[in-house]
Every structure is written in structure tokens, then in C-alpha cells.
Amino acid sequence: MNRHNKVLDIIIFSLIGIALILLLLPFVCEGYSIKYDLQFKRWGAYYFPYEDWKWWKAQGIAESNLKPEAVSWCGARGIMQLMPLTAKDLGVNPYNPEQNIQGGIKYNAWIDKILKKKNIANPNRRNLMFGSYNAGLGWILKAIKKADSVEWLLVSEQLKTITKYSAETIGYVKRINKIYGGLN
Fold first, then answer.
1. pTM of the complete model
2. Do 163 and 135 touch, CB atoms closer than 8 A?
3. Distance in angstroms (rounded) separating the CA atoms of residues 144 and 136
4. Using CA atoms, how far apart are residues 127 and 133, in angstroms rounded to an integer?
5. Where are the alpha helices (DSSP H) in the chain?
6. Does domain 35-183 have CATH number 3.40.50.880?
7. In the chain, where are the structural domains located?
8. By the 8 A CB rule, do 89 and 68 touch?
9. Which residue of 1, 11, 95, 170 is 20 to 30 Å from 119, comparing CA positions?
10. What is the pLDDT of residues 68-101, one digit of tens each?
11. What is the pLDDT of residues 147-158, one digit of tens each?
């Protein structure tokens, strides 16, 4: 009976330990929580059926660290940091986490569609899309024209000459790529 109680105690303490680890894991690995994975998978597959959904999660981490209550200095809101007018145009509520994620990925799809028409292949198109999401499509198209190239590194060099916010955009694209690498 005594041996049976010890085994039972070990099992109970092990389960408590595992439960604590699982509860604390999102705080230890902030930004890599699985909380919104289902939404990123769903909307990623809907708008980008041949892309890895983790790209959108990496973007959400770069945008807000997956915080649905995040508000930027310019008024962008939610996980994907949608501007209120953009969210309205996309038909989503920026305060609803799932709709915010849907809207961000939908906005990426709109940008991607325009870049596809220019016959830009991945990974350049993906980086140009993320750059456009951050800086605005117009700035990226101007930089492409000035660079006479769709190579992200060349475009980003030209972006430096046309907008004072280029460092933010270049860092943003770099951060998404780094986060994505850590998700795999």
C-alpha cells in the first residue's frame, strides 16, 4: 500500500508540473503562443492556399506580438494592426481577433494580387508584400521602379531614398523573416 501511494504521488506531482509548464509556456515564449494558430491556419489557407500559414503568424507577432488590444501610435489596431478605415474597407471588425487576422491576411492577398500581375515570384513577392503592408503599396512600387528590379534587397536600398520611414519597413520585413524561421 505504501509503495502504491508513492507511485500515485509521483504521478500527481508530475501531472501538476506538466500543467504548470503548459500554463506558463505562453509567458516564457511570448509571441509564440498557439492561441491564434487556428485563425492563422484558417485564413491563411483561404487567401493563400499554397503558402505556409506561419508567415501570417510571424507577421502578427511582428505587428503586435499577438495582442488583440494593441493600438499603434497612428491608430492601427489589433493583432494585425489594421487601420480603422482599412478594416472597414475589408469588412472586418478590428477589435475582434479573428476578424482582425482575417482582415490582415485579406489585405495581404489584395497586395499580392497586384504584385502577381507584375510577374514577381516568391520570395521577392512575399517580402515586397510585407513591405507594402507596412509602408504602403505606393512606396514599394516607386522603389521597384527606381531599382528597376523586384529583388527585395535592391528595392529596399531604393526605398531608403524615397521615404524617411524606410528603416522601419526594412526592419519589419527582416523581423517577419526571422520570426518565421523561429516558428519552423
1. 0.81
2. yes
3. 13
4. 10
5. 2-28, 37-47, 54-64, 84-90, 97-116, 124-135, 137-147, 152-162, 166-183
6. no
7. 1-30, 35-183
8. no
9. 170
10. 999 999 999 999 999 999 999 999 999 999 999 9
11. 999 999 999 999
C-alpha cell at 163: 521615404
Q: Are 124 and 150 in contact (CB under 8 A)?
A: yes
Tell me if 55 sits within 8 A of 62, measured CB to CB: no
User: Contact at 8 Å (CB) between 36 and 61?
Assistant: no
DSSP letter for 121, please.
P
One-letter amino acid for residue 97 of the chain:
P
Looking at the DSSP assignment, which residues form a beta bridge with residue 114?
none
d(CA 135, CA 140): 7
Q: Annotated active-site positions, please?
A: 63
Question: Residue 160, Cβ neighbours under 10 Å: how many?
Answer: 13
Nine cell digits for residue 113:
494580387
* DSSP tag of 149: S
Beta-ladder partners of 77: 71, 82
CA separation for the pair 124, 46 (Å, rounded): 21
CA angle centred on 139, ends 131 and 71, rounded to 5°: 55
Answer for the pair 179, 61: CB distance below 8 angstroms, yes or no.
Answer: yes
State how far Cα 118 lies from the chain centre. 24
Work out the widest C-alpha separation in the chain, in whole angstroms: 81
